[in-house]
Structures are given as C-alpha cells and as structure tokens.
Amino acid sequence: MKLKTLFICFLMVFFINVTVWAEQTDTDFVAWKKQLRTQALNEGLTEEFLDEVIPRMTLLPHVVESDKKQPEFQLTFWTYLDKTITPLRIQKGQEMLRLHHKTLKAAEKKYKVPAKYIVAFWGLESNYGSHKGSIDTLNALTTLAYDTRRRTFFTKELLTFLKILQKEKLSDITGSWAGAFGNFQFMPTTFQAYGVDGDGDGKIDIVNSVPDAIFSAANYLSKMGWNPNVKWGREVKLTKPMSWEDVHNDKQKTLADWEKLGVKPANGGPWPTKMAGVNAEILMPMGVDGPVFLTYSNFKVIMRWNRSTLYALAVGLLSDAIEQENMTIYAKRQNNPLSTIEVKEIQEILAKEGYYTSDIDGNVGRGTREALCKYQKDHQLPQDGYASKEILKKMKGIE
Ligand code: CA
Prior knowledge:
Radius of gyration: 25 Å
Number of helices: 18
Largest sheet: 5 strands, antiparallel
Distance between the termini: 62 Å
CATH topology of one domain: Helicase, Ruva Protein, domain 3
CATH superfamily of one domain: Bacterial muramidase
Bound molecules: calcium ion
Number of strands: 7
Strand order of the largest sheet: 4-6-7-3-5
C-alpha cells in the first residue's frame, strides 16, 4: 500500500512537472511565433503566406539533442577518410560524371570550376542526392531559432527560408537537423545568395532539379574565388628536417621555395615546372608522423564551404580518386584516435601549466593546437600541435 501510494505520488509529481513544462514552452512558443510574424512582415513576407505557414511550425526536441551531441572519439584523418571516401562512393562519382556530363560541362564553362570538384562535393554532401536528409527543414530551423543558444543566426536562416518558400513556391522540404537541404546541403542564406536556375524553367529548386543544384554549387565556388588553373593541393613528403616556423601560422611559400626546403611530391615524381610560382602551405592532419600535404588557394575556397580541414582534404582526395579511379595515399597508415576524455586530460594539463585558457571541452580546436605547439616548443618536442596518445603519455610523465 505504502509503495503504491509512493508510486502514485511519483506519477502525480511527474505529470504535474511535464504539464507545467509543456504549458510554459507552449506559452513562450506562441509569443515567439507572434514576434516572428511581425519580423517576417517587416521583411516583406505576405500575411497570406504567413497565415498558412506559421501555424504549421512545430518544435522538434531531437534536433536540439543532435545539435548538442558530442562524439565519443575524435575523428582522425584515417577514420574520416574511411567513412567518407569508400570505393562505392568513388565508383558512383564516376557514374555521376558520365550521367550528368552535359550539365557539369555547361557549369564548368560558365563558372570555371572543374566537374570533378562539383561531383566530389555532391558525393560528400548528399551521396549524390540519395541522402538529402529526412527532417522537415521548416521545423528544424524553427526549433533552432527558438532555442536560445544561437537565436540570431538561426532566426536569420529561418526568415530567409520563409522567403525562399514564398518566392519559389517550394513545399515539403526536408534536410539535415541543422537546417541544410538539397543536393549540396545549402543553408537558406547560401541558397538565397548563390542559388541559380540551371535548367532554365524560371524557378530555383536545389532539391529536385540536378541542373539547378549543380549550377548553384559551381556559382558558389566561383564567387568564393575558385582558381581553375590550380588543383586543391597534393600529398608531399619532407626529405629534410623543417623549421616549425615554416610550417605554422598558415605560412605561404611558392612551390619553388618549398622545393628548396626539401618538399617533394609524394609519388616521387618531379614538380610540374609551370607550378613554380604557385603559393602553397603545409598541412599535417595527423601530426609530424602522419601524411603531409601542400595546399593551394582552392583549399581555402573549400574551407569557406565547410571550415573543417578534414572535409576539405576529403573533397580534394575524392575529386582526384574520381578522376583516377582509385585513391592513393603514400603515407603509412596509423590510427589511434583519442577519446574525448583523453583530449580533456591534455587540455587540463595545458591549462594547469599555463598554456591554455579556453574551455576544457574535449574538442581539439585551434586554441588547443596552438597551446600544444607552445608546450612542445618548451619541451624540445616536434611542434606539430597534434593531440595524440603519445603526447598525452609524455605530458603525464609516463614516457
Ligand atoms: Ca530551375
């Protein structure tokens, strides 16, 4: 009896809490929608359209959960590559190159971005249109705009999305939990700024029209400064010890200068002579013991699309693999990913010794890499800023 009473009490408290929470959210959400409506009217959306669309907006709690989720292990160059550049994806990329040859060549002619790069972005963003995402974009953006963490950013994306829906008369758009949609997973503001009509039907539809999607992606890359005369970069090998000053701080040198410092193409071949004046910088995604790349200006263009260096490397390597029918990386493969807990340990030691002042968040960002470089310099270690199990052992005095 006593237990039963307790259980009922528990249930009552539970229901009261849930009801109060739901009502609070509900009241806030209604007020928020009203405010959004006023803002949308000020930005030129019509009453008729808003009366139809605003009542349809609902919150998706799992979107916020996905947005907050942290990976258990850090993605390394190799784990990322295994996931993103599979033999099937290379093969399908070649098929897409053939299947959409005419559209891709027309886009290449107009925007001066080679077809193989467009196909590589397409493969990574939506597996060539087969995984465009199944979350209702209107509700994903509504949820993230209503959530207080990045309200300004997502309110702008939501209002832009509403303008697109009204203008292009698109409906039922689904995409990622973060509000990106279509073959190339554009955010609404990217669509608005760079979307173009590739098939000439007077509408821009990056979800259902492949020519619209391809022309829009090429237009974006062209506006970001794509240089058609150079590649993205290439794998290299270091044949002499290198000064860390030359490697860090995005130091740019011409290929001729890198060559003098002992940097050679990884395949053992010579440098193409017409490339001597091209500016490049060194990238070591897995530290001094991992693969080494020289990246050219187009690498920065790829990073304007997505700020991750691993993503940018994957675009470059996938585009080469599609062209050459397979992917070749000369560096020896090693893979020993750090857990988020181990990254936190590294950050804690760096913080304790005065090298690091940011959050102990388990994410290796620029701050952690720079702090690690300073630590390595003071401890006479190679300054690659790469958080590894080896460096953690050294920091803890195990080795
Ligand atoms: Ca169109």
